[in-house]
Amino acid sequence: MKQVRAIFRHEVLEPVRNALEQLGVPGMTITEVKGFGHQRGHTETYRGAQVKIHFRPKIELLTIINNEQLDTVVEAITTNARTGMVGDGKIFVTSVEQVYRIRTGESGNKAI
């Protein structure tokens, strides 16, 4: 099993979610986060003063999938989240040793 964590722009959430649903991804968790990478924030004018915004708002998507789904899930996220501009985001993949469903006690792939 793999954990896929993707951080990307707000405006591409629906296309990414739709693509993952079509692939049969069993579930996902979405969190609004703030951060920076190469983008390094930006400057805005607020009441006539220049204000440096250090952290950019992003969406973090977290899902656990079977190993066989990894390539198609990463491709779907990449394709639907890419705008070609700095700040498109990142995808992190880690191995998951075990998953348990609290309600039924199921474990492994059945619990995903």
Rounded mean pLDDT score: 92
Query: Termini separation (Å)?
Result: 9 Å
| Count of individual domains | 1
Order of helices and strands: EHEEEEHE
CATH class: Alpha Beta
Task: Tell me the radius of gyration.
Answer: 17 Å
Give the percentage of residues in beta strands. Answer: 35-45%
What does this structure look like?
This protein is of the alpha+beta class. The protein has helices at residues 13-22, 70-81; strands at residues 2-8, 29-35, 42-46, 49-53, 56-65, 89-95. It contains two helices and six strands, in the order E-H-E-E-E-E-H-E. It is elongated, with a radius of gyration of 17 Å. The chain starts with a strand and ends in a 17-residue tail after the last strand.
